[in-house]
Amino acid sequence: MPTLGKVRPHPTQNEPLLFELSRPGKRGYQLPPLDVPEASPEEALGAENVRREIEDFPELSEVEVLRHFTRLSTWNYAIDLGMFPLGSCTMKYNPRINEAAARVEPLAWAHPYQPEELSQGAMEIIATLEQYLAEIFGMSEVTLQPAAGAHGEYTGIMLIRAYLAAQGNPRKVVLVPDSAHGTNPATAVIAGYEVKTLASNDRGMTDPAAVAAAVNEDVAALMITNPNTLGVFEEHIEEIAEILHAKGAQLYMDGANLNALVGVARPGDFGVDVLHANLHKTFSTPHGGGGPGAGAVGVKPHLAPFLPVPRLKREGGLLRWDYDRPQSIGRVRAFYGNFGVMIRALAYILAHGGEGLRRATLDALLNANYVRARLEPYYQIAYPSRSMHECVFSDARQEKRGVRTMDIAKRLLDYGFHPYTVSFPLIVHGAMMIEPTETEPKAELDAFCDALIAIAQEVEENPELVKSAPHSTRVSRVDEVSAARKPRVRWTREAAG
Amino acid sequence: MRYLPNSDADRQAMLAACGLSSLEDLYRHVPENALIREPLKIPPGMSEYEIMAYFRAQAEKMAHGYASFLGAGVYAHYRPVLCDVIAQRGEFLTSYTPYQAEYAQGTLQSIFEFQTLICQLTGMEVANASMYDGSTAVAEAAMMAYRITGRSKFFAPLNLHPEYRQVLDTAAHNARMSVATYPYDAATGQADLAALERLLDEETACVILQSPNFFGVVEDVRAAAEIAHRRGALLVVVFTEAVSLGLLEPPRDADIVAGELQSFAISPSYGGPFAGVIATKEKYIRQIPGRLAGETRDQDGNRAFCLTLSTREQHIRREKATSNICTNQALVALMATVFLSVYGKQGLRELAVQNLSKAHYLAGGLELRFTGKFFNEFVVKPRRMTPQQALERLLEKKILGGVALARFYPELADCLLVCATEMNRREDMDALKEVLA
Asked: Residue A235's closest CA among A265, A193, A277, A212?
């Protein structure tokens, strides 16, 4: 087999579903002997409440379970295998010390209702992380209760609604630039607002004049991402904040791209009233194939009374959970948030320190600009503005040969790289959105750029090769259209025949 | 900084390729006013050794070596070693949401298996790939009921987990919808379905019912479904103790099931991360929030999996999405999947029987507040002292004795909510009984 980029194809093993592997009578567990009399389910629960069996539930031995999931794991790409250049996703190295810290037993096994006197360590960790994040954001207070970024957005918009309602009018409209993440408009609607979209200007920025024209006494807030999803710093951010504030509206910032700013600029300093950041992006907690994350929300003092309950409070040398917050929006999640994720994020911050965080940001900017510089001769940059931590190209040149961004993305798989973000932001025709993060060595960036340059060449010489990619992955291009047409979202014995 | 892989020579070469002379040039275009004015007030970076020492020092200030009878939505169950072994494989731990199906078949097949297991456990036909937790799953289930029925009022019982009810209140309030409550039967601890029938009106999108409920008592799902359906409302059944599904009849009469999977191999971790789930009937598949994995084929006809029906989701549908959820709890759902594979059909039942047996042994001779049938937790009234005194007495014996219900229910201020799982030893149970009896 020939080598392509950093890839040489090798066999992976087939693996059926758990349910197909299952054989009656197999077991992978052993419980300790019961040290009390065994209760009769029928007597204890009532015969009508007891199920006869869990139909078709799997029966497997321990070694088969281990092999099953290990084999499945080999079908995945991961940060541990190489660069994951998804734009606005900040797929950086996930330090393993974070995992070790989260598994320290008295922290991992802490029950949320154990006495506060016996929970001071966990509470101290939360308080310290809140304090460091407030410092990084330039905000006065931070809540860590939201479970993820979108949940943080939802919390942030509810804070704005509660604040405005306390002033007498919650208002009706939230402005969202057309470059925003899909979660922004979805969040505004769920929090009870109408969404009005603002067009970006020809530099890929939000235009203060457009904001001024759109803002009135009905507008509650503008939700902005900075740097935005084009990887461009919103240079008029302070002017935009002034325009909004003059009309009593709030500036909400989506911190999805905070990795471009830590230690270099603080949203609180450039006029943002409320901000959410994803601990699973900038703060290195693992994505785990889609979660868990945690959404930190930072606010200016005028929004602090509305933060979710409970809040931490120091009282006589002890930390306490304070539930007596009459203006609070209430709870957004049971208990105190994704504590295990907070441990990992704090471990990340401790490892860097203040200066280390700034150095990481500079390397993130450098890596993105280096990729841009290497690829610009071959791909059309979407906007000429300077890039921060990510760069966005268009497939305009390749489209002339009938090859689109998705085809190039699939061909990248053959070269051993996870694709960039495809077709987003929507305002770029055939977008290719690339965020390398600071944890990629130059050699990996070069291999990635070499791959994309080689693909640009293939588009000229053999476009069909690219359009029919991938050719070396475990499965060839997956038919997503028929999956949606007739959804099969579980295994059943009947359907399996 | 040890996580930054480039050498200074690399940096110089890269800056040169960008036509820049210093790292600071990278943000020269950012307006001066927007830049940070002084260095971050965060101490210098630490070594691994120092980081572990910091967290161990925090751990010293936590309960350690206590026998625990705390439940109330978070349960201490044994975690088979394989759960962590699989979850720590970098290919699962450090992979992204499986949008690029060809490079994520492992995650996708495991989600498909997860969805199937949840359907088998709950008696539903569709389950999503996970929600943040049980509390947010209930709020999302209510919103789903609103989309299906066009009605905007939800009925929640007072024996629904109080923090879940608070989360539902927050969500409903902001969506300009309303939550009405219905009482529990003061004798049995079950939801008062007769009262529900009197209160329920034709504006109600769904009736919510938790089983086993917050007091640990098993509910009559079928009767609640009949009442809800008579008024054109859906029934949302909630569970917080997932191990109970190994033994209890699945809530087949529900229209939506919303639950918390923490019991399946997820450490209590001071309240999270856990994993919630929503399951429903096939006819409501287009209204379910969150990600779904589906089976399909690749171009060569091989079985393959991909995320599907994403036109429900925010990244496609934007303001018309069913929910704004994006990141979910995938890795936690994977741990639950491994847990269920290890225990399997017989094991989950045996595990549930052990829980049932321990709790019923523990309850023997105590003054139970309610007469309803319970699974592995129950409400007890200490005979000789107040709940607070009992908890203090137990702390001296290194026992976390349960949750004092005064914090949620003034009328139950003389009671504790106590839970027993397979982790509790008989000698600790005897010590607890001695104080409470």
From this structure: A265
Residue B391 Cα, gap to closest chain A Cα (Å): 10
What integer pLDDT is reported at residue A106 of this predicted model? 98
Instruction: Using the structure block, give the residue that is written with the tokens 């999640």.
Output: A333
Residues B423 and B356 in one domain: yes
Question: H or E stretch including B164?
Answer: helix B162-174
| Chain B contacts in chain A segment 258-297 (CB below 8 A) | 262-266, 269-270, 278, 280, 284, 286-294
Q: Tell me if A199 sits within 8 A of A230, measured CB to CB.
A: no
pLDDT of residue A1: 67
Query: Sign of dihedral through CA atoms A196, A201, A204, A210?
Result: negative
The number of distinct structural domains making up chain B is 2
B 210-249 residues with CB below 8 A of A? 218, 245-249
> How far is it, in rounded angstroms, from Cα A331 to Cα B135?
10
Q: Which of B329, B348, B373 is closest, CB to CB, to A292? A: B329
**What is the pLDDT averaged over residues A364-387?**
97
Q: Decide if B300 is inside a domain.
A: yes
Q: What is the ipTM of this complex?
A: 0.97
CATH class as words, domain A97-350: alpha beta
Determine whether the interchain pair B41/A135 forms a contact, defined as Cβ–Cβ distance below 8 Å: yes
The pLDDT > 90 percentage for chain B reads: 95
- Listed by number, the residues of chain B in 260-299 with a beta carbon closer than 8 Å to a beta carbon of chain A are 267-273, 275, 285, 291-299
Q: Which residues of B touch A152 (CB under 8 A)?
A: none
The answer to whether residue A318 neighbours chain B at the CB level (below 8 Å) is no
Pairing type for strands A318-322 and B256-260 reads unpaired
First CA to last CA distance, chain B: 59
Q: How confident is the model at residue A143 (pLDDT cuts 50, 70, 90)?
A: very high
Q: Which CATH superfamily hosts domain A361-482? A: Aspartate Aminotransferase, domain 1 (3.90.1150.10)
The vertex-B413 CA angle with B407 and B419, nearest 5°, equals: 75
Which of A132-146, B195-209, B299-313 shows the lowest per-residue confidence on average (mean pLDDT)?
B299-313
CATH label of the domain that carries residue B159: 3.40.640.10
Residues 6+ apart with CB under 8 A from B117: A18, A57, A58, B337, B340
Q: Does A360 touch chain B (CB under 8 A)?
A: yes
> Both B273 and B187 in a single domain?
yes
Q: Are residues B139 and B73 in the same domain?
A: no
Are residues B314 and B289 both part of a single domain? Answer: yes
Q: Find the CATH number of the domain harbouring B407.
A: 3.90.1150.10
Q: Do B207 and B131 fall within a single domain? A: yes
- Counting one residue from chain A and one from chain B, the pairs whose CB atoms sit within 8 A come to 675
Cross-strand bridge partners of residue B238: B210, B258
How near does any CA of chain B get to the CA of A401, in Å? 22
**Chain A hits for B58, Cβ within 8 Å:** 107, 121-122, 124-125
Shortest CA distance from B273: residue in chain A:
A338
Segments forming the whole domain that contains residue B139: 81-338
Contacts of A488 in chain B (CB under 8 A): 294-296
Distance CA B59, CA A222 (A): 42
Query: To the nearest whole angstrom, how far is the Cα of A213 from the nearest Cα of chain B?
Result: 22
Are B183 and B72 part of one and the same domain?
A: no
Q: What's the confidence (pLDDT) of residue A35?
A: 98
